User: Which sequence fits this backbone?
């Protein structure tokens, strides 16, 4: 059973402490399918997902991410990579520089929401050396590492809802 999407959005938060238990493959597959269903410019789907469960590779990823411990502590890390050339073919430089990043961010958000809906803790990691992450997963040179997502069962106490700016502070209706 999964949560309502609005509950997922409201209740999601970064989990940095994980139990050692691995996520069952069917659950992980559903999470990855959610990422693959994300919208993308021209439906080009310029993403690639590296699913890392190997401890030695996670150690390399953590080293590339300024030793963020949640990377080695989580049972699974998904490296989300963009393929700028795929977006460039249709949209030129704007596709390569912007659209492929927007598209992979949408895929990342879908993964985070699916994980939340399925009771899996997650943490989006963006602070890392792209080249070292790509080397760790042996990505081809055409791919650009955009995000890492740590996944696993939470070993944290439930948190209160996160504070947000009021909608009136970030919204303007233009009639």
Assistant:
């Amino acid at each position: 059973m999964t949560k309502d999407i609005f509950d997922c959005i409201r209740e999601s938060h970064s989990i940095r402490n994980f139990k050692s238990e691995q996520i069952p493959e069917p659950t992980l597959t559903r999470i990855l399918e959610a990422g693959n269903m994300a919208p993308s410019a021209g439906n080009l789907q310029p993403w690639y997902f590296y699913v890392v469960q190997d401890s030695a590779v996670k150690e390399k990823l953590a080293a590339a991410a300024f030793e963020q411990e949640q990377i080695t502590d989580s049972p699974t890390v998904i490296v989300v990579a963009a393929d700028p050339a795929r977006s460039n073919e249709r949209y030129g430089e704007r596709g390569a520089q912007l659209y492929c990043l927007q598209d992979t961010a949408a895929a990342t958000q879908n993964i985070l929401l699916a994980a939340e809906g399925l009771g899996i803790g997650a943490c989006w990691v963006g602070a890392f050396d792209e080249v070292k992450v790509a080397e760790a997963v042996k990505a081809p040179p055409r791919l650009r590492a955009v995000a890492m997502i740590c996944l696993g069962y939470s070993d944290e106490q439930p948190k209160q809802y996160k504070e947000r700016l009021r909608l009136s502070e970030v919204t303007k209706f233009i009639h």
The chain is about 45% helix and 15% strand. Residues 84-117 form the longest helix (34 residues). The chain has one domain: 12-156. Strands lie at 47-52, 76-82, 121-125, 144-152.
